[in-house]
Amino acid sequence: MAKKRKAEDVSESGDEAPAIEEKKEKKEKKEKQEKKEKKEKKKRQAEAVHESDDETPTTKEQKKEKKEKKAKKAKKEKSEDEEPTPAPRKSPRLLALAAAKEVPEMELGACDPAEFMRKHEISVQGGTGTIPAPLQSFDEAAKFFPTKLMEQVKVAGFTTPSAIQSQCWPVALQGDDVIAVAKTGSGKTVGFLFPMFVHIVKVLKAGTAIGKSPIGLVVAPTRELASQIHVECEKFGDACEIWSTVVYGGTPKGPQIKAVMWGVQIIVATPGRMNDFLELKSPPVLKDGLSGCEILVLDEADRMLDMGFEPQIRTIIEALPKEHQTMMFTATWPKAVQRLAREYLRPNPVQINIGNSDQLVANKSIKQHIHQVWHYDKEAKLVELFNTLDQEAWVIVFANKKHLIESLVCKLRSACWRSVSIHGDKEQWQREEALQKFSSGQIRVIVATDVAARGLDIKGVTHVINYDMPMAGAQGIEDWVHRTGRTGRAGKDGIAHSFFNPKDDEQSAPELVDVLKDAGQEIPAWLQEYADKNRRRKGKGKGGKGKGKGRSKGKGKGKGSFGKGKGKGKW
């Protein structure tokens, strides 16, 4: 019986299994169908929403158009009642024409040349013929310079020529030798480059260039200044398809030799490296020498003589053809520069002075602050000054000693001011890298010796700090003027701070006070006292006692410390 029941149970379970599977399949089909229906439903809903979205903007646009039509109709009806008014002009040219009735039209060059020269303190002397009037605007200058060059001037953002440019251009363009005496930052670089470009274009068109000799040569005292001139030369020279290169010491000669031998129209050089290339015979860098060079520029001539480059300058000039044009640019007009001009410029060169060339003048756009600081207080005073500056300040710090430069850089970095340095002990690539970071604004503080006093033309510099005053005497004050002239460039204002240590700098007080007075600056009472004290000291002379010795009667002479005395000698 038990076996029979078991068999029946097994048969029943075998019959139920297919039924269960059938139910499962039906259930799954039903679920799939439901899912499918749900998806289709969602899809239909999405399409409906999309259609409604498409319809909404059209209805909105229709309503907007209706409103605009109504507004136009109302405006038209209103204008019929009132007097008609002209439509507003959007073009700047048309606006200028519309305003012509109110503002009288100014003619180009309307300012009297004599008045213009008086206003800009331009004086001209020398020359063998008529001195041309200054070019008062770029529109006037466009008559003489290539169109592409003038387009590049606009791109650079220049609005009007500087004083030295306006007078130097017409004089140089007529082929005269030029002596230009103007302060630093007055636009002298463009003053000599543009006439050089015009002459080179004429030579290239005429096909009279000699071999691979440069047509123009610019000589500058420092590597930094030479590099700076070359940058301007490339920026504007490319517009005239004029190629240039720069050569200076402190870097390998190979790349420079390759560039010169390839052939360029302008070479910008320091005196020493230019002499090396003239003397080099293997390989012969300048195969044709300077026989095709027709224009020579001596930039910062006074500085080159101060640095002892006179023999190298003479060698360069002697290598030039007899007939060439020379332009000499200088910030001061000492006797050594005058002597060089007399010897190597053609008779009766045209001398252009901006301001008083016989007097050292500081830039009036720079606010001068003179601080009485003893040697051991200088570092603390420097940090104190930097704490008053905002992070956007662009600062050059000058010091006299190379070893002190790196110490100041570390001090400023510890005060959270990123800084770089330039001095004579650094490799040229290091100096160039530091200068590039500073000029690009990547780093806003540079600490330097006088190697940068005439080599930096960065128009954004806001502050100059003289951690050390230059050496005492007239030459030191001249260097001080050039240092502070790194700010307040291109018509902008600047600020200069100078640390005056009475122990080291007292002797320079009279000259410093004179320069500050001429620039209309405030003079501290303590500095005026030091100046008066040194003037009195220099004015005093002491008579000396003379003693004579001799075997016969006669007069003997003896010298005292500040005077002369006479004594009689007897047997």
Describe this structure as you would to a colleague.
There is one protein chain. The protein is 48% helix and 14% strand. 34% of the residues are buried. Strand 11 (420-422), helix 16 (428-439) and strand 12 form a beta-alpha-beta unit. The chain folds into 2 domains: 113-354, P-loop containing nucleotide triphosphate hydrolases (Rossmann fold), CATH 3.40.50; 366-539, Rossmann fold (3-Layer(aba) Sandwich). The radius of gyration is 40 Å and the shape is extended. The chain is an alpha/beta fold. The protein has helices at 2-81, 92-98, 113-119, 138-141, 147-156, 163-173, 188-206, 223-237, 253-262, 271-279, 301-306, 310-318, 335-344, 378-387, 402-414, 428-439, 474-484, 502-505, 509-518, 525-539; strands at residues 122-126, 178-181, 216-219, 244-247, 266-269, 295-299, 325-330, 350-354, 366-372, 395-398, 420-422, 445-448, 463-466, 494-500, 554-559, 564-569. The protein is built from 20 helices and 16 strands. The chain starts with a helix and ends with a strand. The strands form 3 sheets. The chain has an 8-stranded mixed β-sheet, sandwiched between helices. Strands 9-14-13-10-12-11 form a 6-stranded parallel β-sheet, with helices on both faces.
Distance between the termini: 180 Å
Instruction: Estimate nothing, just give the exact number of structural domains.
Output: 2
Strand arrangement, major sheet: 1-8-2-7-6-3-5-4
Major beta sheet summary: 8 strands, mixed
Relative helix content: 40-55%
Radius of gyration: 40 Å
| Count of alpha/pi helices | 20
Give the name of the CATH superfamily of the largest domain: P-loop containing nucleotide triphosphate hydrolases
Poorly predicted runs of 5 or more residues: 1-8, 10-14, 49-58, 79-109, 542-546, 550-571
In the CATH hierarchy, the third-tier topology of the largest domain is known as: Rossmann fold
Chain-averaged pLDDT: 80
CATH architecture of the largest domain: 3-Layer(aba) Sandwich
